[in-house]
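Q: Structure for this?
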Amino acid sequence: MFSSARIVRKDRLEGFLERLLEDREVFAPVRKGGLVTLEMIDSVRDVILEYENTKESPKAAVFPQRETLFGYQAEKGKVALDVPRGKEKEQVLFGIRPCDARGLLLLDRVFGGDCGDPYYAEKRAKTLVLSLGCVNPNPTCFCHSMGGGPCSPEGSDLFFLDLGDRYMVEVGSDKCEALLEDEAFEDADEKSLALSEKIRKETEASMTPLALNENLKEHLGRLFDDPAWNALAETCLGCGICTYLCPTCHCFDLCDEAEGGTGERIRVWDSCQFPLFTQQASGFNPRPTVKERFRQRIMHKFSYLPETQAMLGCVGCGRCVIECPVNLDIREVMTSLSEGTVPA
Amino acid sequence: MSEMPSMETFVTTEIRETAGDLLRKNKVQVVIGFERGSIPLRSRPCFVRSEKDIDRLVWDGFCENSVARYVAKRDEKMALVAKGCDSRALVELIKENQVARDQVIIIGVPCRGMIDRSRVEALVAPRRILETEEKEDLLVLKGSDFEETVPRSDLLCDSCRTCTHPNPVLADILVGEPVVEEDQDPFDDIEAFDAMRPDERWAYLRNEVNKCIRCYACRNACPLCYCPECFVDTTLPQWIGKSTDTSDTMIFHLVRAYHLAGRCVACGACERACPVGVDIRKLNRKLLKDVRDFFGYEAGLSLDEACPLATFCPDDPEAFIMNP
């Protein structure tokens, strides 16, 4: 497991980040207006690593909330297209959490595959994920119940774990070969390896697992018409906080921003919680109320994505738990649905 | 000396008894109130339809949501646990024909102000609160290795600090003891906002709306934002772009604020719902002050008073039209 593990002493981290900044865009957690957010940094001194998680997930780095697909200019029966070039610089997501790193793996499946999305692919290919393990997970975290873990390197190109005066660094992909030549990295010693394993085990043991149905996907499939949804969704405001802050939600809308014949076709985030999401031109809406829209969010994450992408659409980051204005807690929803005894 | 039960415990008991009575006698089909949330510092709306569930209902300093937000276009006969601001929202909803007066039984609760959880969290950060306890004028914050007692008044939500109607203005059943009300909102923050140069004000608003992620939590948490189709969701014509470009977010917030002028009851639900800390109340409060100054009107105080922007009086002021 630790065949390629390294060590970075804490006093050498700043230098490493400085060198990263020389020819890459580095995104890292910073404090901004009372919130901790993931921002492109100018100075290493702004980076904070003592934090729970960023307010928003890092998905915007590869799937921006607004993205120009192409510009167009229609004149005298001719249309000129201007397709933006791919990302020029490499970008590094430094210090993101293991849950969010795993979230990117789901986006990879959705935007990749047989009909890959070039806009996503170009950004993703130039993205390095340097995540930081959690040694003190928030009580709202449930990554370990969603297949991940507070110290899971899954989805990270490099995975950092705080060992006190140094970081244990696991290498998760071959995208970091050049990076590892940096003078900050040393080979890991046996003591550090043992300590890191101890921390991993202790942190995982500190989290209470959710009592979920073992065959969740099939179980939910049978619950589609269950009356339970009425009560579960009753307090939902129908806002987009849960979907917009979610590291895996990826639905979007396409629209034109134009004046006359000149404009841009853009892609913007959309949310299944909004009525317009499924509003049809005829005026008919197949998901007419909050209940259907709430059910869609749950079903998509825990039934449809496991079916189509072989991966849950939830990484247990807990953002929706913390930020929902009416504290509609997805952990309680899933536990309650798991308990439901429905005829097979 | 044994401690007196807190006001919150007392009110909780009364709410449960009242709810049980209303459900038992079939006077309502549902009681909309608050229950304990799933994480510390949170209570949340809940719908109780059966007498056996009344013990879910609680009252404490975390009942921050506007439950009036749930009444519009509902068929059932309802009872509502209403703070001062919730009762004012109900007055507006009744006037605007969104709910019939006899369709809702108002269980009014005098409100001591709700606690701003972000303030509490900031106070003890990076330590975590696992439990809280309310005492008279104090809040006890408990973590795994600490216990701190803080005056409740230091922790109130901004909207509760400027509230002048904490007692329900309309109630069928009143539980708890009325609280002392402030005479008038001094609007210090808006005086300061008005004193800014126009370019400074614009820069301030731009900076605020640039945080917006267009999740519409402010709109959806608002008891008076009940349009079946919001202008942002209209597609023919499309009034507003869909991105987080400043021009779009600005239009959303400005138009929403204007649509609430003379109707906003200053409950602050919008700002508490916002996940990214946009100063939404600045615009709403600016218009609250304007409506008060121009028309001597405060929304949600009387079922008989028409909204000044929905009616005409020959002596309506014109200065802001003629000489803005």
